[in-house]
Specification:
The chain is mainly alpha-helical. It has two domains: 42 residues, no CATH class; 98 residues, no CATH class. It is built from nine helices and two strands. Strands 1-2 form a two-stranded antiparallel ribbon. The longest helix is centred in the middle third of the chain and has 19 residues. The protein is globular, with a radius of gyration of 21 Å.
Length: 182
Protein backbone atom coordinates (compact mmCIF):
# COMPACT_ATOMS: atom_id res chain seq x y z
CA UNK A 1 0.00 0.00 0.00
CA UNK A 2 1.42 3.37 -1.02
CA UNK A 3 0.52 6.34 1.12
CA UNK A 4 1.81 9.88 1.48
CA UNK A 5 3.83 10.75 4.56
CA UNK A 6 4.76 14.34 5.37
CA UNK A 7 8.25 14.76 6.82
CA UNK A 8 10.13 18.06 7.22
CA UNK A 9 7.62 19.83 5.03
CA UNK A 10 8.06 17.39 2.15
CA UNK A 11 5.40 14.95 1.08
CA UNK A 12 6.96 11.56 0.35
CA UNK A 13 5.12 8.50 -0.95
CA UNK A 14 6.07 5.42 1.00
CA UNK A 15 5.07 1.83 0.48
CA UNK A 16 4.94 -0.21 3.62
CA UNK A 17 6.77 1.43 6.49
CA UNK A 18 6.70 5.20 7.16
CA UNK A 19 10.24 5.14 8.57
CA UNK A 20 11.56 4.56 5.02
CA UNK A 21 10.58 8.13 4.24
CA UNK A 22 13.00 9.42 6.83
CA UNK A 23 16.09 9.31 4.61
CA UNK A 24 14.36 11.05 1.73
CA UNK A 25 12.75 13.63 3.98
CA UNK A 26 15.97 14.54 5.75
CA UNK A 27 17.69 15.14 2.41
CA UNK A 28 15.08 17.68 1.38
CA UNK A 29 13.91 20.81 3.14
CA UNK A 30 10.97 23.08 2.53
CA UNK A 31 11.56 25.63 -0.20
CA UNK A 32 11.05 29.14 1.08
CA UNK A 33 10.66 30.69 -2.34
CA UNK A 34 10.37 29.65 -5.94
CA UNK A 35 14.00 30.54 -6.65
CA UNK A 36 15.48 28.80 -3.63
CA UNK A 37 17.39 25.59 -4.10
CA UNK A 38 16.58 22.44 -2.22
CA UNK A 39 19.60 21.70 -0.05
CA UNK A 40 20.62 18.29 1.16
CA UNK A 41 21.20 17.61 4.84
CA UNK A 42 24.97 18.05 4.58
CA UNK A 43 24.67 21.37 2.77
CA UNK A 44 25.28 20.20 -0.79
CA UNK A 45 23.21 21.70 -3.55
CA UNK A 46 20.77 18.96 -4.45
CA UNK A 47 18.90 20.55 -7.36
CA UNK A 48 21.92 21.59 -9.46
CA UNK A 49 23.73 18.33 -8.67
CA UNK A 50 20.81 16.34 -10.07
CA UNK A 51 20.62 18.53 -13.15
CA UNK A 52 24.37 18.16 -13.68
CA UNK A 53 24.02 14.38 -13.44
CA UNK A 54 21.13 14.33 -15.92
CA UNK A 55 23.00 16.53 -18.37
CA UNK A 56 26.40 14.88 -17.82
CA UNK A 57 27.00 13.93 -21.46
CA UNK A 58 26.36 17.48 -22.67
CA UNK A 59 28.46 18.99 -19.87
CA UNK A 60 31.29 16.53 -20.55
CA UNK A 61 31.26 17.53 -24.21
CA UNK A 62 31.48 21.20 -23.28
CA UNK A 63 34.36 20.56 -20.89
CA UNK A 64 36.19 18.50 -23.52
CA UNK A 65 35.81 21.39 -25.97
CA UNK A 66 37.62 23.63 -23.50
CA UNK A 67 34.78 25.70 -22.05
CA UNK A 68 35.84 27.02 -18.65
CA UNK A 69 33.61 25.88 -15.78
CA UNK A 70 34.06 28.98 -13.59
CA UNK A 71 31.16 30.90 -15.08
CA UNK A 72 28.58 28.10 -14.91
CA UNK A 73 27.44 26.29 -11.77
CA UNK A 74 26.52 23.09 -13.62
CA UNK A 75 29.87 22.98 -15.44
CA UNK A 76 31.72 23.60 -12.19
CA UNK A 77 29.86 20.79 -10.42
CA UNK A 78 30.49 18.39 -13.31
CA UNK A 79 34.16 19.40 -13.53
CA UNK A 80 34.61 18.71 -9.82
CA UNK A 81 32.97 15.31 -10.23
CA UNK A 82 35.10 14.41 -13.27
CA UNK A 83 38.34 15.44 -11.58
CA UNK A 84 37.50 13.45 -8.44
CA UNK A 85 39.58 10.43 -7.48
CA UNK A 86 36.82 7.89 -8.09
CA UNK A 87 36.14 9.03 -11.65
CA UNK A 88 39.86 9.28 -12.42
CA UNK A 89 40.42 5.69 -11.29
CA UNK A 90 37.46 4.57 -13.41
CA UNK A 91 38.89 6.23 -16.54
CA UNK A 92 42.38 4.83 -15.82
CA UNK A 93 40.91 1.31 -15.50
CA UNK A 94 39.04 1.80 -18.78
CA UNK A 95 42.24 2.77 -20.58
CA UNK A 96 44.11 -0.19 -19.10
CA UNK A 97 41.29 -2.56 -20.07
CA UNK A 98 41.30 -1.23 -23.64
CA UNK A 99 45.06 -1.66 -23.84
CA UNK A 100 44.89 -5.25 -22.54
CA UNK A 101 42.17 -5.98 -25.08
CA UNK A 102 44.39 -4.58 -27.85
CA UNK A 103 47.27 -6.82 -26.74
CA UNK A 104 45.20 -10.00 -27.01
CA UNK A 105 45.65 -11.81 -30.30
CA UNK A 106 42.33 -13.65 -30.12
CA UNK A 107 39.60 -11.73 -28.31
CA UNK A 108 37.42 -14.72 -27.56
CA UNK A 109 33.65 -14.50 -27.57
CA UNK A 110 32.62 -11.06 -26.41
CA UNK A 111 30.12 -8.37 -27.24
CA UNK A 112 32.61 -5.61 -26.39
CA UNK A 113 33.87 -3.41 -29.20
CA UNK A 114 37.52 -4.16 -29.88
CA UNK A 115 39.84 -1.18 -29.81
CA UNK A 116 41.97 -0.19 -32.77
CA UNK A 117 44.89 -2.40 -31.71
CA UNK A 118 47.51 -1.00 -34.09
CA UNK A 119 46.92 2.61 -33.02
CA UNK A 120 46.54 1.80 -29.32
CA UNK A 121 49.70 -0.31 -29.16
CA UNK A 122 51.62 2.46 -30.93
CA UNK A 123 50.40 4.91 -28.28
CA UNK A 124 51.61 2.76 -25.35
CA UNK A 125 53.96 5.36 -23.78
CA UNK A 126 51.26 8.01 -23.86
CA UNK A 127 48.65 5.61 -22.43
CA UNK A 128 51.03 4.60 -19.62
CA UNK A 129 51.80 8.23 -18.76
CA UNK A 130 48.11 9.15 -18.73
CA UNK A 131 47.27 6.15 -16.54
CA UNK A 132 50.00 7.10 -14.09
CA UNK A 133 48.83 10.72 -14.04
CA UNK A 134 45.21 9.70 -13.39
CA UNK A 135 46.19 7.40 -10.52
CA UNK A 136 48.37 10.02 -8.82
CA UNK A 137 47.01 12.20 -6.06
CA UNK A 138 47.96 15.42 -7.88
CA UNK A 139 45.04 17.51 -9.16
CA UNK A 140 44.04 17.11 -12.78
CA UNK A 141 42.08 19.24 -15.23
CA UNK A 142 38.52 18.12 -15.83
CA UNK A 143 38.84 18.80 -19.57
CA UNK A 144 41.43 16.03 -19.91
CA UNK A 145 39.27 13.54 -18.05
CA UNK A 146 36.30 14.52 -20.22
CA UNK A 147 38.34 13.93 -23.40
CA UNK A 148 39.47 10.52 -22.17
CA UNK A 149 35.95 9.57 -21.13
CA UNK A 150 34.66 10.54 -24.58
CA UNK A 151 37.37 8.41 -26.20
CA UNK A 152 36.40 5.42 -24.08
CA UNK A 153 32.63 5.70 -24.44
CA UNK A 154 32.20 6.82 -28.05
CA UNK A 155 32.32 3.88 -30.45
CA UNK A 156 33.15 6.25 -33.31
CA UNK A 157 36.24 7.64 -31.57
CA UNK A 158 39.78 6.97 -32.86
CA UNK A 159 40.20 4.49 -30.01
CA UNK A 160 37.86 2.07 -31.77
CA UNK A 161 37.65 3.13 -35.43
CA UNK A 162 40.31 2.89 -38.11
CA UNK A 163 40.91 6.31 -39.49
CA UNK A 164 43.73 8.69 -40.09
CA UNK A 165 47.03 7.24 -38.81
CA UNK A 166 48.13 8.96 -35.62
CA UNK A 167 44.67 10.33 -34.80
CA UNK A 168 44.50 8.38 -31.54
CA UNK A 169 47.97 9.43 -30.43
CA UNK A 170 47.22 13.10 -31.12
CA UNK A 171 43.92 12.88 -29.24
CA UNK A 172 45.65 11.18 -26.29
CA UNK A 173 48.34 13.89 -26.27
CA UNK A 174 45.63 16.52 -26.30
CA UNK A 175 44.02 14.82 -23.30
CA UNK A 176 47.38 14.58 -21.50
CA UNK A 177 47.93 18.31 -22.00
CA UNK A 178 44.40 19.06 -20.75
CA UNK A 179 45.02 16.97 -17.64
CA UNK A 180 47.34 19.68 -16.36
CA UNK A 181 45.28 21.90 -14.05
CA UNK A 182 44.94 25.58 -14.95
Amino acid sequence: MTRPVRRCGVEVFVSGHPHRARGVAFRARRQRSVTSVVRARRGYLLGPRLIAAWRSAELDRQLAEGIEPQGNLLLALRARKLAGARNRRRVARGLARAYRSAEMKTPGFTAAVRPNARELLAAQPTVAAIGQRLRSSAPVGAAGVAILKALLTDGASPLYQDGEPGALVSRLREAAAALEPR
